Amino acid sequence: MQMFCLSATMCFLFAGSVVEGQSVSALIRQADELDAKERTDDAIEVLKQAEKITPNNPTVLVNLSQDYSDKIDAAKDRSQKLAFAKLCLAYAKKAVHEAPDNADAHVCLSIAYGKMTDFVDNKTKMEYSKVVKSEAEKAVELNPKNDLALLILARWNYEMATLNPILKAIAQTLYGQIPSASKEKATEYFQRAIAAAPDKILLHAEYAEALESMGKTKEARAEWLKIKELKPTDAEDRRYLAEAEQKLK
């Protein structure tokens, strides 16, 4: 009888965990659908429900970090932006803590520190830039075809290669010597990102803008033309598509 009770209890617990897992998966799918419709606030509410069920679920934490990152861009008030940036960073840190081998978690942490650079002094900005780079590199180490991590490294290389004298002096102090970075490396990372996800408008647009800054108008035009062939998936894509149409007039 005692053995039967134990078996029944184990079955009950197992069944409960299965239902719980199915519930969280359904909530994550629902949040993804809301994000696709650009209903970020509603997606966050759904993910918060999932978080209550499984507080340490890496996918939930990563998605919340991503959504709060989107909220930073949408907010008008600086104090609101900072509040969302702090939430974006907190969830990204927790995601990495819970899933250190998850490339997307490291990408989120890299992005979160990048977002925080808008709210700190120049010295802290350069300190955060080191984390942006190291977290993106960790993501690429875990998944060499993570297009967002490759894009971050492309941006990092381009920005470091074009630092103004003040930031360059701070970087020299922090790094000991300015880390190896160049427009050529940026170009290589842009191309690797596009190879990993050729249908992403964001990647082509970022590369096109970098090419224009380097005076490579012919190559930039080819990227803008490519964007016109792709299907936008969100508001950012539509903005880039409108920009492509303007550039190609």
Name the features.
single chain; 249 residues; mainly alpha; Serine Threonine Protein Phosphatase 5, Tetratricopeptide repeat; 3 domains; 12 helices; 81% helix; 0% strand
Structural class: mainly alpha
Rg over C-alpha atoms, rounded to the nearest angstrom: 21 Å
Task: Give the total of domains.
Answer: 3
Strand content: under 5%
Q: Please give the largest β-sheet.
A: none
User: Level of helix content?
Assistant: over 70%
Note the total helix count: 12
Kindly report the name of the CATH homologous superfamily of the largest domain: Tetratricopeptide repeat domain
Q: Any idea of the CATH topology of the largest domain? A: Serine Threonine Protein Phosphatase 5, Tetratricopeptide repeat
Question: Low-confidence parts, pLDDT < 50 over ≥5 residues?
Answer: 1-6, 8-19
Description:
The protein has helices at 2-36, 40-53, 58-74, 78-98, 103-116, 122-142, 147-161, 165-175, 183-196, 201-213, 217-229, 235-247. With 249 residues, the chain is an all-alpha fold. It folds into three domains: 34-119, Serine Threonine Protein Phosphatase 5, Tetratricopeptide repeat, CATH 1.25.40; 121-193; 198-249. The termini are far apart. The chain is globular, with a radius of gyration of 21 Å. 35% of the residues are buried. The protein is built from twelve helices and no strands. Helix 1 (2-36) runs antiparallel to helix 2, helix 3 runs antiparallel to helix 4 and helix 6 runs antiparallel to helix 7 (147-161). Mean pLDDT is 89; it is low at 1-6 and 8-19.
